[in-house]
Write the structure tokens for this entry.
Amino acid sequence: MKYLVLTRRRMLTICACVVVCCLAVVFSITGIQAVQTAYVQKVPVYSVPTPDKQVALTFNCAWDIDHTDEYVEILQNYQVEATFFVTGVWAEKYTNAVNQISEAGYEIGNLGNTYERIPQLSQADMMSNLMQCNETLKKITSKTPKLFRPPYGDYNALLLDTVNTLEMQTVQWDIDSFDQHNITVQEIADKIMKEVKSGSIILLHNRSDLTLEALPYVIQMLQSEGYEIISVSQLMRNATQMQSE
């Protein structure tokens, strides 16, 4: 007798295929209108319209380096919030770091299971990729991420559709700190301060020693200009509350 061995990845792929098939059935039942509106999705959030001087610092974590201790210490010293977007593979390798981020109260988002150009995948593989990262993060933190950031900022309509199916929000950025480039701490801070506005979402990376050196300086400059540094979700909640008033 032959037995079929199902790995976790294979199970996620099967589940993703089932979800995609169910969506296809729904679209076929609802007819032409569903076909015409299938990809009319929320656009990614690049910044949040708000009159308040509030911004969000975000960190992409996907590489074989971990400065989590130092980042958390700096953020706590200045009493500011941040959002960390991590890949599932990074979370599995640096479980203690993910735990530390979560236990310190900082927001964690989905950066895909691996750092790859997800729009090149089929929808079933997109679904599997995102679900696997969510599962890994939930296993570590007991929380399912509500935010997704596409690696390289690369997305298409199909990926947005997939993200929305998982009831997540796609988040990009309006300020790239260029902390991965061969520039100085002063240049990083100057670039951010030149482009910052109320509701800005700032992109940083966990793999650069330069980022670690620049972070306190950036926080000080933002605070000196009256900016409150909060999480992406809090930024979006505040904007929603103001719109409803």
The longest helix spans residues 8-30. The CA atoms of residues 39 and 157 lie 6 Å apart. Residues 1-5, 18-41 have pLDDT under 50 and may be disordered.
